[in-house]
Design brief:
Length: 156
């Protein structure tokens, strides 16, 4: 069962000496999804994905648990993968390529509403990079400079 929560954060500020009040209401989205079996899409696994505007969290395990977090600004690319059996069950797998050292690729496997979640991650990761001003600090895999273009005096 997919849970989409909207968390409201309300700031009330008083302005000046009068009775004028300003209410700033900010709505934050959060997706809570469980990994599912391909058989009928039943959520009988112990993996839970929580996706907020700032962090992507993967909780795994029943007896031995592990929690893996990845900040949204580190997500560089998002891919939606849907196999034939996933399509029959109404599921999808999201592959996130990150700049995280421990997990350069995160897989959000066999979840409902996969296209909506993929678009949410894509939008929020871009917004987080702009907010932190890290847009131009990513390695986009540029071609190396050919030897004939290098200045030989720089290296001597």
């Amino acid at each position: 069962m997919s849970e989409e929560k909207e968390l409201s954060v309300i700031d009330v500020k008083e302005e000046g000496k009068g009775n004028a009040h300003s209410v700033n209401m900010e709505v934050k989205k959060e997706y809570v999804e469980r990994k599912r079996w391909l058989f009928l899409g039943l959520p009988f696994t112990f993996t839970k994905y929580t996706i907020t505007e700032d962090v992507l969290t993967i909780n795994k395990g029943l007896l031995k648990t592990s929690e893996n977090d990845c900040y949204m600004y580190k997500v560089t690319d998002v891919e939606l993968l849907i196999s034939f059996w996933e399509r029959l069950a109404g599921l999808g797998t999201i592959r996130c390529i990150t700049g995280d050292k421990t997990h350069p690729e995160l897989f959000i496997q066999h979840v409902c509403h996969s296209k909506e979640i993929k678009n949410f991650i894509l939008q929020k990761s871009e917004a987080a990079r702009i907010k932190r001003r890290t847009v131009n600090m990513q390695d986009i895999g540029g071609m190396p400079v050919p030897p004939e273009m290098m200045d030989v005096d720089e290296f001597n």
